[in-house]
Amino acid sequence: MARILTLTLNPALDLTVRLARLEPGEVNRSETMLTHAAGKGVNVAQVLADLGHHVTVGGFLGEDNPQAFEALIARRGFVDAFIRVPGETRSNIKIAEQGGRVTDINAPGPQVTEQAQQALLNQLTLIAPGHDVVVVAGSLPRGVSPLWFQGLLVQLKELGLKVALDTSGEALRVGLKACPWLIKPNTEELAEALDCPTDSVDLQALAAERLHAEGIEHVVISHGADGVNWFSPGTALHATPPKVSVASTVGAGDSLLAGMLHGLLSFDVPETTLRRATAIAAMAVTQIGFGISDDAQLARLESGVHVHPLTEQ
User: Fold this and answer.
1) 189, 186, 141: which is closest to 169 by C-alpha?
2) Threshold 0.70, pTM exceeds
3) CB 90 within 8 A of CB 109
4) Catalytic residue numbers?
């Protein structure tokens, strides 16, 4: 299997609260409350590990509360390449209602100094070679500028890695200038980054053509319950997921990205890659937490995914 590096610059302890329905301004009583070491790159890493890949995880961790992350890293057998920084890793609250709606309350994260940023760049110079792909996912912590972030992506490419990028806002805008190998925005994130509408298949195809010309090979656009569109040179496919009972949508996009990388690195045919990735994302929304929990369930979900060539409806 492949060696994959994931970078989560702004990880989080996710506190997921499950309840029947959130009533703002009222006393709400939870059904369950779970805490996970998370962040987009960390979530991707867990799914990739379940798919058999060797994973190194890195980014910035607060030195005051690393225990949950260190326990996860040890349990999963990841290589730990996180740079510890003063302060606490942020905590995010996810309020998951029975109907599938999730309300996020995300904290900003610790301040990351220029010294810590340089330490990460130095570490990547040593450890990145030999990995097949690097996943750079999630938001930027305080102290990390978009310009520095763009330089990080360029350095990773110069080290010989294929870069898979999953972020939003200004980080995605500057990240596109580094021409990563793969991007996975949703429709709104892509439209904001490109300053153009992307709300139809034709418009997405035009955007993807523009990105291909700039050197971005794979454009994966997620549409939540409506599925996913994938544009690469010679490939334009849509996958519709099966209907499932939704526990939480947290981690669905991360699971989709992990599934796409697995298929691409395994040299599967495009239809197989997209079908499996969509099924992995569908499984993610049925559970609280990250990873492939049931191979038989995944096979059933995969059989319910419909993949077809993209045409304007």
Assistant:
1) 189
2) yes
3) yes
4) 254
DSSP state of 89: -
The strand pairing partners of 164, in sequence order, are 135, 182
On the CB side of 152, CA atoms within 13 Å amount to: 30
Per-domain residue ranges of the chain: 3-309
The set of residues, in sequence order, having a beta carbon less than 8 Å from that of 193 and lying 6+ positions away, is 168, 169, 172, 173, 176, 185
Task: Report yes or no: 177 and 216 within 8 Å, Cβ to Cβ.
Answer: no
pLDDT in tens, 153-210: 999 999 999 999 999 999 999 999 999 999 999 999 999 999 999 989 999 999 999 9
Q: Are the C-beta atoms of 134 and 107 separated by less than 8 Å?
A: no
**Which of 188, 124, 184 shows the shortest CA–CA distance to 155?**
124
CA distance 198 to 191: 5
Domain 3-309, CATH class in plain words? alpha beta
Q: How do strand 182-183 and strand 162-166 relate by DSSP bridges?
A: parallel
Structure tokens at 254: 């991360």
Helix axes 146-158, 169-177, angle to 10 degrees: 40
What is the distance between the terminal CA atoms of the chain, rounded to a whole angstrom?
38
Label residue 12 left, alpha or beta by phi (over 0 means left) and psi (-120 to 50 means alpha): beta
Segment 124-136 shows an average pLDDT of 96
Whole-Å CA distances, 28 to 19, 53, 108, 112: 8, 41, 25, 35
Q: Which helix (H) or strand (E) holds 5?
A: strand 3-8
The greatest distance separating any two alpha carbons of the chain, rounded to the nearest whole angstrom, comes to 54
Residue 104, classed as helix, strand or coil, is strand
